[in-house]
Amino acid sequence: MPSAAGRGQGPERDRRPESGEQPAADDYAKERYGVSSMIQSQEKPDRVLVRIKDLTEEKADEVVWVRGRIHTSRAKGKQCFLVLRQQQFNIQALVAVGQHASKQMVKFAANINKESIVDVEGVVRKAHQKIGGCTQQDVELHVQKIYVISLAEPRLPLQLDDAVRPEVEGEEVKTLHPQICFNISTSTSQAVFCLQSGICQLFRETLIRKGFVEIQTPKIISAASEGGANVFTVSYFKSSAYLAQSPQLYKQMCICADFEKVFCVGPVFRAEDSNTHRHLTEFVGLDIEMAFNYHYHEVVDEIADTMVQIFKGLQERFQTEIQTVNKQFPCEPFKFLEPTLRLEYREGVAMLREAGVEMGDEDDLSTPNEKLLGRLVKEKYDTDFYILDKYPLAVRPFYTMPDPVNPKNSNSYDMFMRGEEILSGAQRIHDPQLLTERAQHHGIDLEKIKAYIDSFRFGAPPHAGGGIGLERVTMLYLGLHNVRQTSMFPRDPKRLTP
Amino acid sequence: MPSAAGRGQGPERDRRPESGEQPAADDYAKERYGVSSMIQSQEKPDRVLVRIKDLTEEKADEVVWVRGRIHTSRAKGKQCFLVLRQQQFNIQALVAVGQHASKQMVKFAANINKESIVDVEGVVRKAHQKIGGCTQQDVELHVQKIYVISLAEPRLPLQLDDAVRPEVEGEEVKTLHPQICFNISTSTSQAVFCLQSGICQLFRETLIRKGFVEIQTPKIISAASEGGANVFTVSYFKSSAYLAQSPQLYKQMCICADFEKVFCVGPVFRAEDSNTHRHLTEFVGLDIEMAFNYHYHEVVDEIADTMVQIFKGLQERFQTEIQTVNKQFPCEPFKFLEPTLRLEYREGVAMLREAGVEMGDEDDLSTPNEKLLGRLVKEKYDTDFYILDKYPLAVRPFYTMPDPVNPKNSNSYDMFMRGEEILSGAQRIHDPQLLTERAQHHGIDLEKIKAYIDSFRFGAPPHAGGGIGLERVTMLYLGLHNVRQTSMFPRDPKRLTP
């Protein structure tokens, strides 16, 4: 057990809280509080630390040890009220002059800097009335011992309570604080990132159940595919290389090597100077590629079902997190259909025209039109998730398979959540001759994509796939407004730290 | 259904096999074979394709459709024997002149280039004797129709059968073929990478069950921690940045933000000019970080148990893959103890000295000594997996927590599989004052690691963690000899493609 006297077996140092007091010799409670020496794994005590979320009326009158942060503290005569926080949960703790605590001990407790981590021994007591502002409303902790485990500096860069006040309509999205630890410490952020972890888990769980194999694709590559725009350059020993803008080539090579169904989860790099609410220079791609038998809709159906399984899993397993986020960012629950709604591009264009938008058959969708179409689809079909199929060939990359019926269309699709694109995908051309023709049509230097085209020379199954942006899925599922809220350490043209 | 006449709805092109024949008008079987037009998702036929691995005696006398690659073909009078391959499985198929097949059809089948993908309709027949060289030994397929779906070029860069012949003792590890699709198409590679996918799955499954949260950490970073050696530089708009050598700082920030238990899976970049059997410039890191209560062994035990769960899961779920790899690379089954053997560094040094090695108490382990120690441990304790704990402080990074009893030691550990290091980890210093002292001792510029040290100023729980190299775990579990065999697209100082 860490010694309470501040002079453990670790290196000798001054561990006195700036405005706190170490116990004095004539204090009858002097063994019951203090600053522990740094935990350097000196001992293995058999003390059990109870989780704050488990402190309920069932534990009334038990003596427990708890580790938490000082969320708030308020001294009042011979008493000090602390709120102890542990992740999304908190409890009120009372230090009062009496048998266990001396006047000095109460003063010590009151002076511990906020955010410091403490070990507290206390008796769980039923509260006389509900304790507002705490997640554990029915009990409080009557403190018998309190030791500082890690002392926070007295001047915090921001107050956590300020960071989680509900969003006001029209107000600008709060900029991220440079001391990002605080940004990810709020109960909202804890919930956002637990849910994001859940999205990855559900994505992989579902695909592994469907017989997919996870692959690892390289991020440092020798040639920028698709012509080389928007790509970061890396110094590679005496030469140079690029950061992969997509794992697509590698997914396709695995398909050519008969892996049949593959997925990968990893960083994707885009050197676009875009400063919007939904662009990052580095984001996490959830990528799928799959050989099919006769029609790329076999793949579209698998991807759409994977998204549906994710939505269902989030509903079932992450209600607490969704509600925590909703407190700060109120939002309608995410709606989806089963099976997923699939519209053709021309149908989407028709709906937009009906709503007064002027656009040509082969024009791409602008961001405002995407959002408008999302609202129109929601009104008509009552879903926040749908597929737009058969994009004009002209607006898609050269490797997209042309539609066999109408050569102006293509076997390609986007998927949308709350009116914003989260996935782009297509049947890929698996025939080297057609691929060459299409690359030439796009004015791409064949020499630069020779390795790509050569991948298909030794028998390639027809295949399709797509890439999903993780941060966008998290943002749109939760109805947040900026992708920086769903990236722990966002990267954009102006932001490289921490 | 794709038309057999080679003139589907797709772009008009010559799809004739180089040495094959399209059906002639006077051929009674002319509808039963040919080169299909490119599958462009023209139709959604309700044809069911049966998996080759499911073709067993139970299916005898059924008519089935199968898609596979021409693995080998051998014409013999009025018959042609094909071996059709699908992933790790294959079956013999017979095209013989008769009611269904004409002389021309047999000739067509015999002339299809190897590795081409074909759709075959055939009757499953019991074989009169076991068919050697095929995984489906008890049945063969009597072909009634055969259509080429994707034609391979006639000159293959290597023969798959050559690539999987058993390793000969002392022979140099085969260099990877530049046409890597073939390198990852072999049954051995299929098995290696399926098992690797399983390692990732078991790693995450186990940690999520233990209450860990998956995090995503940035790969483009503004400052090279640990002083800046061996780091790749990236052009970042008008400035420059680095590729992360480890997610450690970010894992630790999550611990400071009370995530308590986190893990991540992602690429790690090391600009080391090392050309060894176990170094890559880009590899996949399985990283863990965890707050503990009083002793870092709480974390060591969790990590070791995670490895044990992986080993057990591989044994249970991947026997087929292990056996497939063993055919080419024979190897003793991987042995481990439960709980995992943990030796102190000084015990390891004593064992080495007893075996004649001369080394000082604070010397680091050389690679040959690591391997020797692995053999000694295996002899004495009969395990291929163990932990070496309490490394000398002098050989570990500045952020390693010193041992509280012997200041020349540290709270750090490595884990070994078959005598090679797969994980390096430690209790980290969570106190900014001690961290500053240790950085100064190592001569590190404090200005460059200010953000790192500042992360611990607002209360930091004691924590420990470690990073595992995925490719090494796969290599050592399977007893392979080069980490390039367990990376689909390996990167080293001399290799950036494909």
From TrEMBL, chains A, B:
Q: Where is the Aminoacyl-transfer RNA synthetases class-II family profile domain?
A: 195-498
UniProt-listed Enzyme Commission number(s)? 6.1.1.12
This protein is called Aspartate--tRNA ligase, cytoplasmic
Reaction(s) catalysed by this chain's protein? tRNA(Asp) + L-aspartate + ATP = L-aspartyl-tRNA(Asp) + AMP + diphosphate
* Record-linked NCBIfam families: aspS_nondisc, PRK05159.1
Q: Report the InterPro entries cross-referenced here.
A: Aa-tRNA-synt_II, aa-tRNA-synth_II, aa-tRNA-synth_II/BPL/LPL, Asp-tRNA_synthase_2, Asp/Asn-tRNA-synth_IIb, NA-bd_OB-fold, NA-bd_OB_tRNA
Molecular function in Gene Ontology:
aspartate-tRNA ligase activity; ATP binding; RNA binding
Q: Composition bias, kind Basic and acidic residues: at what positions? A: 10-19
Assembly and partners are described as: Homodimer. Part of a multisubunit complex that groups tRNA ligases for Arg (RARS1), Asp (DARS1), Gln (QARS1), Ile (IARS1), Leu (LARS1), Lys (KARS1), Met (MARS1) the bifunctional ligase for Glu and Pro (EPRS1) and the auxiliary subunits AIMP1/p43, AIMP2/p38 and EEF1E1/p18.
Gene3D superfamilies, A to Z: Bira Bifunctional Protein, Domain 2 (3.30.930.10), Nucleic acid-binding proteins (2.40.50.140)
Write out the similarity annotation: Belongs to the class-II aminoacyl-tRNA synthetase family. Type 2 subfamily.
From what organism does this protein derive?
Anser brachyrhynchus
Q: What class of enzyme is it?
A: ligase
Name the Pfam families on file: tRNA-synt_2, tRNA_anti-codon
**Entry keyword set:** Acetylation, Aminoacyl-tRNA synthetase, ATP-binding, Cytoplasm, Ligase, Nucleotide-binding, Phosphoprotein, Protein biosynthesis
Predominant place of localization: cytoplasm
The annotated region (Disordered) lies at 1-40
Work out whether the entry's keyword set contains Aminoacyl-tRNA synthetase.
Answer: yes
- The reply on keyword Acetylation is yes
An example GO biological process term is: aspartyl-tRNA aminoacylation
GO CC, sorted alphabetically, is: aminoacyl-tRNA synthetase multienzyme complex; cytosol
Q: Which locations, inside or outside the cell, does it occupy?
A: Cytoplasm
**Function comment:** Catalyzes the specific attachment of an amino acid to its cognate tRNA in a 2 step reaction: the amino acid (AA) is first activated by ATP to form AA-AMP and then transferred to the acceptor end of the tRNA.
